[in-house]
Specification:
The complex is a heterodimer of chains A (596) and B (290). Chain A is of the alpha/beta class and 596 residues long. Chain A has 22 helices and 19 strands. Chain A folds into two domains: 295 residues, Rossmann fold; 268 residues, Rossmann fold (3-Layer(aba) Sandwich). An eight-stranded mixed sheet of chain A has the order 3-4-6-5-7-8-9-10, with helices on both faces. In chain A, strands 13-12-11-14-16-17-19 form a seven-stranded parallel sheet, sandwiched between helices. Chain A starts with a strand and ends in a 5-residue tail after the last helix. The relative contact order of chain A is 0.07. Chain B is α+β, with helices and mostly antiparallel strands and 290 residues long. Chain B has one domain: Alpha-Beta Complex (Creatine Amidinohydrolase). Chain B contains eight helices and 14 strands. In chain B, strand 7 and strand 8 form a beta hairpin. Classes of the chains: A alpha/beta (596), B alpha+beta (290). Chains A and B meet through helix 13, helix 14 and helix 19 of A and helix 4 and helix 5 of B.
Chain lengths: 596, 290
């Protein structure tokens, strides 16, 4: 990023500035990237200026001709005189067309809007006079006022409990809209104490990283921008247009933690935007500041697919569950050559994630990567690494970061089984099981977690613990100890990483039909007896026949909902319940010796 | 493996060898039916309609009795997703859509000989199912090899399951009644009236039941399952073998007759009844293309 320029404005490196005169105002426009590339036009929201896009624009500029402009009355653009009536959506559409004609006279532009930029974008994408000037529209955190008007009407007309709850929920989130409709007071507040405190509030409440944003023009941006609401909200909500159909493909990016907009606002949006691609992001309102990497990658993917129709996936299959959440994300799974790890890799692949399959078993990992591509992963790689080898894990992390990117979801799943009485378990046995089950998880969390935290754009870590973590037994002392450690590690890490928007989940599967039984070590018995017990336990697990795919589904759900501890099978849930409410009964059961 | 079975047939003695050509004829007829019906499948056709098409096709060619009535599974029903009750195997009103995988499974009795076949395909391209079908080849080879080695059926079952897991698939024949990968089939007496019960021909069920009774006394079972009662070497006779792979909502299987004899020569102890079947031809073509 370049240093400050102008009145405290920060402009991305290589930016070219120009001015566009239209409808009595002068708009400050900035261009990045080569002009012959497809044009991506970024429109900012309220109370912002084009600098809200700096991080995203820099990332997009390597592939596209990126254009930003200050909306009239914001940043360095001039304000209309008088202000009242100068911010109607019709006038904003004139501005957009003027900018689009200036920067890309021959080709339609790819429109991206955040907050009020998105509200405007919906207007641009649904009115007739922009047809042929827009190639695609990416909307974040800003509904069409017309759609919103219909949304309210529909729920008012039939106020079922659910509809009423949705109305009240959004009504409460819109408190600031009512405030902005009072005369003079908002202006006074923004030019006074609120304007001064706003940057700190953004950092504290919205987790926007500190830096040169917001710019020095914030008080006047916010004061002028109040007219966006006053000029448009009431008329549009009272008489929403009935023809507000999008004539372009739309990508809708919804941050799930948005304090101002309910996710429910977009229910049934397919009616208005037939070509709709949904994305969700666990983040708060200011995603252009907090999640620039993810936005840049989704915008790139969406725009590229529209520019090169051949690059679009040929099949028109219904999108898999959670495809909105994991599409294009980088997921690394350890122990991915079989069982739960493999099923998890496939589940993420089906949701459109890019998958790194890590395992000691090179052939198995390669097969997983191969099949992952087949079920929908845009890219998948196999890496042969022993998770207990710290050096190898460091090397893996460096390679992944350099070649594939920073991991968005890490699944520390690799584990081995060890059964046998404590007094029969040798120190060597202990070391082996702790090395993989505990140290493997520690290395993963430490090395990849650090990368995630340093990037500062959130992420998620899933650790595969076990029902044995809270289920004492006389047959699995070492295994249970290692898994109990993983469970507690996950809980502690969850507390620590919460402030960095990184979620941590511990999965406790229970008895699942995988090959862990066939490779388990049985301490204190000879080889023949070990083999017999492996076969016997495999058969028992086979009879139970709980498929690893269901565990994989639970893992995806846990990431989406950011769950802390997830027991999967009924016996695992039952054991968790008993460990809380009937620990003595569990201790009695632990004394029984199962015959294998 | 692809040796001339006719020559072999001549070597066998008794009831079995005389009948092999009859079994081969009905198996071929069934696969012809599967291919004919598959070629007629269009978007919007339901499972019930596909099952009826098979039934009528075979009826027109003289089939009057069934080991079981034809089944048809579309979409994720090919992998038996969420199957809990045997009734869920029966054809439903699920409609075929472009790209959807399907499986046709039928077991007609023709001139007193029965066959049981399974045919997997998809409406248009389905790369996932193509991969599953290609990977089934290893199972056909593994099963034959291990039967020739006279290993216990239960162990073979487990080895097949292990191979499936290694390939990344789920074992879906476990969803069949008794989790069978195969069952014995035999000649069926032709009667004027041949009713079915729950989709199965009563004559064939009677044969299976009597086999089960004999087997129970002698320590073998006509059902090739993962359970204790299949812990015996392959029993001479005809086995309809049906390994069924499942992978995230897509399933694929083949089903054909494996002949097991009491010959000591491994080549003669077991062989596939017919090597000129759609899936075998498909593998040969793939091999040639590669």
């Amino acid at each position: 990023m370049s240093g400050m320029s102008g009145a405290g404005a920060m402009e991305p490196a290589g930016a070219r500035e120009r001015w566009v005169r239209t409808g009595g105002v002068e708009l400050c426009v900035v261009e990045l990237g080569e002009r012959d590339r497809p044009t991506v036009l970024l429109v900012h929201g309220y109370p912002d200026s084009k600098e809200v896009w700096t991080e995203v624009a820099e990332r997009l500029a390597t592939r596209f001709h990126v254009v930003l402009y200050d909306v009239r009355g914001h940043g360095r653009s001039t304000a209309p005189q008088p202000l009242r009536g100068g911010f109607t959506l019709e006038k904003l559409t004139d501005d957009f067309l003027a900018v689009a004609d200036a920067v890309s006279p021959d080709r339609p532009v790819h429109l991206v809007g955040h907050d009020w930029g998105s509200v405007q974008g919906w207007e641009f994408a649904t009115v007739g006079r922009t047809e042929g000037r827009i190639a695609s529209f990416t909307s974040m955190s800003g509904p069409s006022l017309d759609h919103f008007g219909h949304w309210i009407r529909k729920r008012m007309a039939r106020p079922t409990p659910r509809a009423a709850a949705q109305l009240l929920g959004q009504g409460a989130k819109s408190w600031y809209v009512y405030m902005l409709h009072t005369p003079v007071l908002p202006e006074l507040a923004w030019r006074g104490p609120l304007g001064k405190r706003w940057p700190k509030m953004l950092q504290r409440v919205e987790k926007v990283p500190a830096g040169s944003y917001p710019t020095a023009s914030l008080p006047s941006d916010a004061a002028n921008g109040a007219w966006l609401y006053r000029d448009n909200v009431r008329p549009r909500l009272r008489r929403p247009r009935s023809d507000a159909y999008a004539h372009v493909p739309v990508q809708l990016i919804t941050p799930t933690g948005d304090a101002f907009l309910s996710e429910r606002l977009y229910d049934g949006l397919e009616r208005w935007a037939p070509d709709l691609l949904r994305r969700t992001l666990p983040a708060k309102h200011w995603i252009p500041r907090t999640r620039p990497d993810q936005l840049a990658s989704w915008i790139t993917e969406f725009v590229t697919a529209r520019e090169e129709p051949a690059a679009r996936a040929p099949e028109q299959k219904a999108p898999a569950r959670y495809a909105d959440r994991f599409g294009g994300q980088l997921v690394l799974v350890t122990g991915a050559a079989s069982g739960i790890g493999r099923a998890t890799a496939f589940a993420f692949a089906e949701a459109g994630a890019r998958v790194v399959a890590v395992d000691r078993d090179e052939e198995g990992a390669a097969r997983t990567a191969d099949m992952a591509r087949l079920v929908g992963a845009p890219e998948a790689w196999a890496e042969c690494v022993d998770v207990s080898d710290e050096q190898a894990m460091e090397k893996l992390a460096a390679k992944v970061a350099a070649e594939y990117g920073i991991v968005d979801v890490l699944v520390n799943n690799a584990g081995i089984g060890l059964s046998g009485a404590f007094l029969d378990t040798t120190a060597e046995d202990w070391k082996k099981v702790l090395d993989v089950n505990l140290w493997g998880v520690i290395h993963g969390c430490r090395i990849f977690g650090k990368q995630m935290a340093e990037r500062g754009q959130g992420g998620h870590i899933v650790n595969t613990a076990s029902a044995a973590a809270y289920l004492p037994s006389r047959t699995l002392p070492a295994y249970s100890t290692s898994k109990a450690a993983v469970l507690m590690l996950s809980e502690c890490l969850r507390a620590e990483l919460a402030s960095k928007s990184i979620g941590v989940s511990a999965i406790c599967p229970g008895i699942v039909n995988t090959n862990i039984t066939a490779t388990s070590r049985f301490a204190g018995v000879d080889e023949a007896e070990e083999k017999r017990r492996q076969e016997r336990s495999s058969r028992l697990y086979g009879l139970r026949n709980f498929p690893p795919e269901k565990v994989a589904d639970a893992i995806l759900r846990a990431v989406v909902r950011n769950e802390a501890v997830v027991p999967v099978t009924p016996e695992s849930k039952g054991a968790l319940w008993m460990s809380r409410f009937a620990p003595r009964a569990l201790r009695r059961i632990a004394r029984l010796e199962p015959r294998l | 493996m692809a040796g001339d079975t006719r020559q072999r047939t001549a070597l066998h003695s008794g009831r079995l060898s005389a009948g092999l050509s009859g079994f081969r004829e009905v198996q071929r007829l069934s696969y012809e039916c599967a291919e004919a019906v598959a070629a007629q499948l269009r978007p919007g056709v339901t499972e019930r309609e596909a099952a009826r098409m098979q039934r009528e096709w075979l009826r027109d060619r003289g089939v009057r009795d069934w080991f079981h009535l034809p089944f048809a599974w579309f979409g994720d029903r090919t992998a038996f997703t969420n199957f809990r009750f045997p009734l869920q195997f029966f054809p439903t009103n699920r409609r075929l859509e472009p790209g959807m995988p399907f499986i046709l499974d039928m077991a007609p009795v023709y001139k007193g000989f029965s066959a049981d076949i399974g045919y997997s395909g998809s409406l248009g391209l389905n790369p996932v199912q193509d991969r599953l079908m290609a990977d089934l080849r290893a199972h056909r080879e593994l099963i034959l090899e291990q039967v020739r080695e006279c290993r216990s059926l239960r162990e073979i079952y487990e080895d097949v399951e292990r191979l499936m897991n290694r390939q990344g698939y789920a074992n879906r024949h476990r969803a069949y009644p008794f989790g069978v990968i195969a069952h014995k089939i035999d000649r069926v007496k032709e009667r004027r009236w041949s009713p079915t019960a729950f989709g199965f021909g009563t004559q064939s069920l009677k044969g299976l039941a009597s086999d089960a009774l004999h087997g129970h006394r002698e320590g073998w079972s006509p059902l090739w399952s993962p359970y204790h009662f299949s812990d015996h070497p392959p029993q001479p006779g005809l086995w309809a073998v049906e390994p069924h792979l499942g992978f995230r909502g897509t399933g694929a299987k083949f089903e054909e007759i494996l002949v097991v004899t009491d010959s000591r020569d491994p080549e003669e102890s077991a062989f596939w009844l017919d090597d000129d079947l759609p899936h075998v031809r498909r593998w040969a073509e793939e091999e040639k293309a590669a």
